[in-house]
Amino acid sequence: MSSSNPLRDAQDRRLPRIAGPSGLVIFGVTGDLSRKKLMPAVYDLANRGLLPPGFSLVGFARRDWASEDFAQVVHDAVKEHARTEFREEVWQQLIQGMRFVQGDFDDDKAFETLKATIQELDKAQGTGGNFAFYLSVPPKFFPQVVQQLKKHGLAEQKENSWRRAVIEKPFGHDLDSAQELNRIVHEVFPPNEVFRIDHYLGKETVQNILALRFANQMFEPIWNRSYVDHVQITMAEDIGIGGRAGYYDGIGAARDVIQNHLLQLLALTAMEEPASFDADALVAEKSKVLGAVKIPKDLGRDTVRGQYAAGWQGGAKAVGYLQEDGIDPKSKTDTYAAVKLEIDNRRWAGVPFYLRTGKRLGRRVTEIAVVFQRAPHSPFDHTATEELGQNAIVIRVQPDEGVTVRFGSKVPGTSMEIRDVSMDFAYGESFTESSPEAYERLILDVLLGDANLFPRLEEVEQSWRILDPIEQYWDTHGKPAQYASGTWGPVEADEMLARDGRSWRRP
Amino acid sequence: MRIDLTDTTSSKINKALVQGRRAIGTPAVGMVLTLVIVTDEENAYDALKAANEASREHPSRTLVVVKRFSRSPRDRSKARLDAEVRLGADAGTGETVVLRLYGEVINHAQSVVLPLLLPDAPTVVWWPVNGPVDPAKDPLGALGQRRVTDTYAAEQPIHELTARSENYTPGDTDLSWARITPWRSMLAAALDQLPTKVTSVEVEGEEFNPSCELLAMWLADRLSVPVKRTLSAGPGLTAVRMETADGPIVLDRADGSLATLCMNGQPDRAVALKRRETSELLAEELRRLDPDDTYASALKFGVDRLGAVVEKAEAEASKTGEDAAASETKPAPAKKAAPAKKAAAK
C-alpha cells in the first residue's frame, strides 16, 4: 500500500501482508463451494490476522434469510470446514461485518438493497468502498449479474477505491464462448480488476514449481530436450461425477480439467524464466509457451477419451458413467481424456507432453513427472541395469505434496545390480494443519490486488485454442472408450504411449 | 517409540536414532532444522510440548539439553550423559532427544550437541528461561545461527533488555518480540488506512512485560516521535494511542483477546488480537532464519532513551498542554521501572 508508511519496512519480514479496508460480496452464497471453501477461507484468513479490521462479508442468494440466519450458516460452515481452530474473538470480529441480501439476479430491488448495504458497511465498518464480487454461480448467470452490477453503479471504479470481480471456472466451453464471457465481464470491469480463480495455482506446490526451477541451479540445466525424454502431467480423481450430472454432462474431463489446470501446470513446467516475479512478466512467459504448444497431427492416434464403466473403486462398487442419475445413456461426454502435446521451441522441440485426467481412476492424485532420457552409455552390463528405469523428477501437487526424485542405485550384495530408488521430499508445510488452503491465498491476493496467481484473459483464450480442435474432432469421430472404474484408464491410452515406446507412470 | 540410554555418548545416540527410524519404517527424513532447547527440568516439559507443536509447521530434530546440578562435590566431578530418544508419534513430526547432563559435562554441553546436529540444516537454539546474557558467546549459542531468548521469563526483564541490546549479535531474537507481531501488523495496517503524520505515541501495558518496551522502542525508532510507556493491570499489552495530525488512532485491548481500533472519521472496529501460545510464537520464530534487523534496530533504540523521551514529552506536554486530552484517561504513574523480583515468571 502506501510506501510512505513509516511502520512498513521491507526488512521487517514478520509483518504479514494485510489487505486494506475491503469487503467481499459472494453471489450464490448458499452453494457448496461457498460453504466448504470460501467461508472457511475467510475465517482462516481472519484467524491468521490477515484481514483488515472491519472486513465485511455480504451474502447474496435467493434464500429468504435474515443477516442472523446467514451468520449462523457461516458459523456452521466455519466450524465444520475451517482449517484453523474456532476462536470466539475472531468470530466476533467477523460477525460485525456480516450481511445478507435476499433476491434473484433479475431483481432490481435486491441490487438496490445490495448497494445500500455496501454504503452502510462503508459507514459502519469503514470498508472504504473497496469490494470484490465473487461470482460463485453457474456461468449462465454471469451476464445477468455483471449487468446488474453495472446498472446499479456497483461496478464503478471510483478514485481511491476499487471494485473487483472474481470468477470461477469454467471460463466458457470453447474459444467463442470464452471470448463472449470475457467481453461481458470486461465491459463492466477493467481487465486488471477481473480475477479468474484456478485454485490449483493457489497451491503451495504449484508455486513451488517456480521456486524449484528458478531458485536452484541443479535442475534448470537439464530441463530441456537434451536431457528430458518426455513429461507426464496427471490429474486423477477417484470419485465419479456425484451429483454434478447437470454440470458435467456435455462438458467432460478435457474441458473441465485439461483446459485450465493441466495446461496451467504445463505452462509453469515448460515456460522460460520470467524477468521478474510479477503478474505481467509471468503472463508473458506463460502466454509464450502456450502459444508454442502444437497439437498432434493425427488426433485419432494421439488423443484418447474414455468413460468409466461399472466396477470396483477402492473396495466400493461403483456404477458406470452412463448409469449415473441424470446422464443420457447415449452420452458421449468424456470422463477420461489423454492428449499428447508438443511445444515448438528450442527448449522443448521433440519432447512430448502427455496430459491425462479422469474420474474414477485408481486414486486421487495430481502430479507432474519429468522423465529423463537413459544414460547415453552404461559401463555396466545389460543384466546389471535390467531393472533400471528412466530417471524422473516428480512434483506431487496433491495429496501428499512434495517432490520425488527417481534414480538408479546399487542393490546391496556381491553382484552389481542397479535398480530404481526414490528420494523423497515431503513438502515441509504439507503435514501440518497450518498449511494455508489455496482459497485463502487466492482470496487474500484478490483483496490485495495481486494478480500473480490468476490466469489472464490471454491464457484462457490460448488454452481454448489448443483444446477446441481436439473437442471438435471428438464430436465427429467415434465415441469414448470404456474403462472399468478403479483402474488407470482405458487400454487405448496405454496403447497411445506404447506406440511411442513409452508407458504411463503409475502415480 | 522411545529408546532410553543411560550413561551414554553422542555416537550411541546417533545409532539409536538410525535404529529407531528403521524400526518404525521411515528411514527418509525431511527435517528442515535442528532446534536445541536449553532448559532446566522444571521447564523442559512445557518447552518440549511447544516445540513438538511447532514441529508440525517446521519438521525438526529437537534436542532438549537439561542440565542437572548435583549436590555433592563428588557427584559434580563425575560426568554422565543420559538420553531419551523419541521418534514417531512421541515426537511431533520430527525426532526428539532429551539429553540429561550430570557433573562436569554440564560445562561441555556443546560437545554432546554438536555431533547430533542435522547435516547442513540450520540450527536454532532456544532458552525458554534463563537465557545467557550474551547468547552468541554462549558455547551452545555459538552452534546456532538463530538464538531465541525470552526476556519475559527473566527476573528483571527491563535490565535484561538493556543487556540484550549491548550484546546483540545478528541472529539473536526474543519471544517477547514475536509476541507483538500482531500488534505491529495492526498498527501498520492502521497507518496504511490513514496515511498521516504521527506526533506522539503512548504504549500501555502491565509492568515487567518487556513486550511493551519493545513495542514502544519499535514505534519510537520507526516514527522518530516521543513514545510514552504507561502501566496498566494487563493482561499483557492493553493499549496503544497514536496522536496524529488527523486525530488519535487508538488500539485498545482490555481483555487480552478482542481489541477495538478507533480512528478519527472512521467507525470503531473490532480486531481479534489474542495472546498467543508459546508454540505459535516459536513457529513464527522458525519461519525466518535470517537476522531480524527490525528487532535489532528497535532493541538498540534503548530502554533508557525511551524514558528520556518520555520525560521530554511530558515536559512538552505540560508546557503546551496539548497532549492533556490523550493522557487524562490514564492513571499515568510516571514511574521509571524499578523492577522488583518477579513473583512468577510465567
Automatic annotation (TrEMBL), chain B:
InterPro entries: G6PDH_assembly_OpcA (IPR004555), OpcA_G6PD_C (IPR046802), OpcA_G6PD_N (IPR046801)
Glucose-6-phosphate dehydrogenase assembly protein OpcA N-terminal domain boundaries: 51-165
Residue spans of biased composition, Low complexity class: 324-346
Pfam families for this protein: OpcA_G6PD_assem, OpcA_G6PD_C
Segments for region (Disordered): 313-346
Biased composition (Basic and acidic residues): 313-322
Glucose-6-phosphate dehydrogenase assembly protein OpcA C-terminal domain residues: 170-299
NCBIfam families: OpcA (TIGR00534)
Name of this chain's protein: Glucose-6-phosphate dehydrogenase assembly protein OpcA
Lineage, broadest ranks: Bacteria, Bacillati, Actinomycetota, Actinomycetes, Kitasatosporales
